[in-house]
């Protein structure tokens, strides 16, 4: 086979291709504009229905009092549960929330009023949940606060699009007003529209496909005579191979390794070469698929290795890794560290009297109480009845208040006659905060927390398990 490429009707071929490309681009642009307006109009109607539906379930006067006092009323809780239910059943809702702009500073400018969460985030992985009275640090800037003030003064729903670190959100917002017509807060819904661009272009491409197919047929007929010699098959094979290399270079996705073989009708070495490239790319796809599958399995095993099977929280392995990280942080001056130890009482007695399934139920119930009480901190199960809390944020700053609330909840359960004996969980809690004058390293901090916990355990009144 010769090594020289002989261009055939180059000018005509290039002219035809450029004509088809320009025509398809113009059609795509027209379709994008029309379809985009249609899709965004549809989203506005969807957002409007949800906002107006939700606004009917919020008492503006009651919400204003909750904001002023910082206390959650029964109506507030009902509204929050209603929002949670809407969000749980609307998968495309990214955020459903109510905020109050405070000022137009770059920090501390917006306060959270209502923040809907799906069941998993509300009751299981609660670390990122927002509560009444939470004031933003750097989540909102001065421009956003100013926009929220404008919405407070608006009489209709305001729509806008915003780029975030998670993608693109389309937001609708309107003011919540009390019985006097005064704006109390802003109610907003963020819809994730990151996928819309691809959907719009897909729609445009489908609508332009007729023109593209017609153009390809025209070119194929016009250049039919050139396909009878060796030049065109070689050119098609080269274009396919180069396109495959350019598209697949650096890709880890199996779908990206797709070689589209050219249509070669000549039954010669070029046909054999084309078939060989197809087989080679198929082998490459199989190889990459095996690698990706192995990596996914490894990631799944790593996740399972760090989760406690009974409670679903992080286990001893994850705890050891976190303690190592904290120890390294202390070595470079990161000394804001607090640890709390929690130990379940009477687990052996429950197991012996009622069975290990009831003991497991007691462990799970205590775990839920710990996770809900210390919602800003990671919780680890490091033994059968032992938990460790790495205190963070609000939990670190207000540990004494949270510990008191924790103990009161346990005391209330022990006095509740409607609960079964194993449901009246009893536990001792103790904490220690890093002090350079007392702690040489993380181990000494752990020992101090453990000592405080056991002192509490000794001081507790014995709770009889019937």
The name CATH uses for the topology of the largest domain is Alpha-Beta Plaits
Question: What spatial order of strands do you see in the largest sheet?
Answer: 2-1-5-4-3
What percent of residues adopt helix (DSSP H or I)? Answer: 40-55%
| Percent of residues in beta strands | 5-15%
pLDDT < 50 runs, ≥5 residues: none
Structural class: alpha+beta
**Average pLDDT score:** 83
Shape descriptor reads extended
- Count of helices? 14
CATH architecture of the largest domain: 2-Layer Sandwich
Specify Rg, calculated over alpha carbons.
32 Å
Largest sheet: 5 strands, antiparallel
Count of domains: 3
CATH superfamily of the largest domain: Reverse transcriptase/Diguanylate cyclase domain
Classified by CATH, the class of the largest domain is Alpha Beta
In sequence order, what are the helices and strands, one letter per element?
Answer: HHHEEHHEEEHHHHEHHEEHHEH
Number of strands: 9
Cα-to-Cα separation, first versus last residue: 93 Å
Structure overview:
The model has no long low-confidence stretch (mean pLDDT 83). The chain is α+β, with helices and mostly antiparallel strands and 466 residues long. The strands form two sheets. The protein has a five-stranded antiparallel sheet with strand order 2-1-5-4-3. It is 54% helix and 14% strand. It has helices at 10-55, 60-69, 74-89, 119-123, 142-152, 196-222, 231-248, 269-305, 316-331, 347-354, 356-373, 393-397, 399-414, 442-459, and strands at 93-101, 110-115, 158-164, 167-177, 183-192, 338-344, 379-381, 386-391, 427-433. It has three domains: 57-194, Beta-Lactamase; 229-305, no CATH class; 316-459, Reverse transcriptase/Diguanylate cyclase domain (Alpha-Beta Plaits). The radius of gyration is 32 Å and the shape is extended.
């Amino acid at each position: 086979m010769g090594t020289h490429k002989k261009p055939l009707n180059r000018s005509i071929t290039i002219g035809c291709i450029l004509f088809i490309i320009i025509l398809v681009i113009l059609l795509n642009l027209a379709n994008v504009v029309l379809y985009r307006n249609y899709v965004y109009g549809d989203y506005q109607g969807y957002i409007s229905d949800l906002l107006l539906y939700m606004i009917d379930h919020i008492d503006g006067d009651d919400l204003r009092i909750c904001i002023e006092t910082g206390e959650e009323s029964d109506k507030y809780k009902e509204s929050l549960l209603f929002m949670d239910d809407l969000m749980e059943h609307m998968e495309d809702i990214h955020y459903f929330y109510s905020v109050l702009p405070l000022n137009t500073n770059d920090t501390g400018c917006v306060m959270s009023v209502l923040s809907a969460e799906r069941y998993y985030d509300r009751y299981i992985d609660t670390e990122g949940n927002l509560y009444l009275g939470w004031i933003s640090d750097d989540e909102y800037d001065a421009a956003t606060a100013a926009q929220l003030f404008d919405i407070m003064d608006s009489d209709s729903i305001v729509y806008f699009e915003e780029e975030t670190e998670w993608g693109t959100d389309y937001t609708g917002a309107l003011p919540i007003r009390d019985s006097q017509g005064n704006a109390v807060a802003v109610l907003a819904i963020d819809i994730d529209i990151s996928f819309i661009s691809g959907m719009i272009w897909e729609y445009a491409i489908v609508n332009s496909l007729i023109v593209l197919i017609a153009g390809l047929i025209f070119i194929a007929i016009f250049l039919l005579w050139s396909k009878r010699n060796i030049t065109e098959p070689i050119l098609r094979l080269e274009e396919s191979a180069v396109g495959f290399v350019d598209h697949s270079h650096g890709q880890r996705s199996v779908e990206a390794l797709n070689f589209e073989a050219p249509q070669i009708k000549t039954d010669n070495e070029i046909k054999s070469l084309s078939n060989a490239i197809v087989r080679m790319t198929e082998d490459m796809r199989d190889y990459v698929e095996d690698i990706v599958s192995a990596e996914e399995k490894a990631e799944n095993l790593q996740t399972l290795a760090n989760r406690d099977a009974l409670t679903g929280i992080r286990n001893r392995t994850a705890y050891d890794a976190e303690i190592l990280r904290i120890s390294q942080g202390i070595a470079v001056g990161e000394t804001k560290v607090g640890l709390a130890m929690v130990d379940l009482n009477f687990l052996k007695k429950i197991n012996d009297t009622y069975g290990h399934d009831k003991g497991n139920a007691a462990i799970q119930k205590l775990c839920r109480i710990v996770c809900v009480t210390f919602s800003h901190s990671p919780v680890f199960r490091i033994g059968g009845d032992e938990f460790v809390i790495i205190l963070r944020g609000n939990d670190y700053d207000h540990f004494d208040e949270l510990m008191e609330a924790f103990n009161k909840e346990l005391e209330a359960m022990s006095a509740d006659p409607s609960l079964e004996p194993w449901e009246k969980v009893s536990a001792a809690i103790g904490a220690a905060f890093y002090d350079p004058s007392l702690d040489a390293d993380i181990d000494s901090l752990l020992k101090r927390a453990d000592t405080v916990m056991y002192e509490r355990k000794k001081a507790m009144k014995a709770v009889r398990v019937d």
